[in-house]
């Protein structure tokens, strides 16, 4: 599972600064309902708790610690885009062994794709082009994180237990980062961001 309160706070603030800096409030509002829907789909496509026989598959995938360096706004936009892209890709892999509700899983795939498309529209609203990483270390850390998920699934031969571990990992990611960042009032003042973010995470 995602580890460490501190690392969640740091990356949370990074992502939040990117979302709030975008000139696309109507899209952000759509993202709110879309994100809540994705969390509900992740919860309902399989058991609420990881089955006891899968407990030995639970591990720390080491969600990366972000550093507020470089062009934070640009890096934040790029980070959110990359995370949505990788999560979307993840759930198109071989899940034939997963004991999921396939109808709900299909709805999840559609919702993730829509979320990614909406975010890409949002991320280019201000500059007219897709956001890119100024600090490549953030990009590398995120890619390594998703590579760990890919490698875990492959090593476990895409077993039902492996998918349950990954599903709950991604569910935690949405609950701790995306849902929190998208749940604020659109007109929140920048000076309140850090305080409110800390209250949500702690």
From TrEMBL:
**InterPro entries in the cross-refs:** 4_helix_cytokine-like_core, Interferon_alpha/beta/delta
Family that this chain belongs to: Belongs to the alpha/beta interferon family.
Instruction: Show the SMART domains listed in the entry.
Output: IFabd
| Position of the signal peptide | 1-21
Recorded protein name is Interferon alpha-21-like
Which SUPFAM superfamilies does this entry report, sorted A to Z?
4-helical cytokines
Q: Per the record's keyword annotation, is Ion transport included, yes or no?
A: no
Locations listed in the record = Secreted
User: What are the protein's UniProt keywords?
Assistant: Antiviral defense, Cytokine, Disulfide bond, Secreted, Signal
Q: Name one GO cellular component term.
A: extracellular space
Q: Which GO terms describe its biological process?
A: defense response to virus; immune response
Q: Which GO terms describe its molecular function?
A: cytokine activity; cytokine receptor binding
């Amino acid at each position: 599972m995602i580890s460490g309160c501190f690392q969640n706070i740091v990356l949370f603030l990074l992502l939040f600064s990117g979302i709030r800096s975008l000139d696309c409030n109507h899209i952000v509002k759509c993202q709110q309902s879309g994100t809540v829907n994705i969390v509900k789909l992740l919860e309902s496509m399989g058991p609420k708790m990881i089955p006891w026989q899968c407990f030995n598959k639970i591990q720390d995938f080491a969600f990366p610690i972000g550093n507020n360096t470089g062009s934070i706004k640009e890096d934040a936009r790029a980070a959110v885009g990359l995370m949505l892209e990788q999560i979307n890709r993840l759930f198109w892999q071989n899940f034939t062994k997963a004991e999921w509700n396939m109808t709900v899983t299909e709805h999840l795939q559609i919702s993730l794709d829509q979320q990614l498309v909406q975010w890409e529209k949002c991320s280019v609203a201000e500059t007219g082009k897709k956001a890119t990483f100024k600090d490549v270390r953030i990009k590398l850390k995120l890619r390594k994180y998703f590579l760990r998920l890919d490698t875990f699934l492959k090593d476990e031969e895409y077993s039902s237990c492996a998918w349950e571990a990954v599903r709950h990992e991604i569910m935690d990611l949405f609950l701790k980062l995306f849902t929190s960042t998208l749940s604020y009032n659109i007109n929140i003042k920048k000076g309140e961001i850090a305080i409110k973010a800390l209250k949500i995470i702690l």
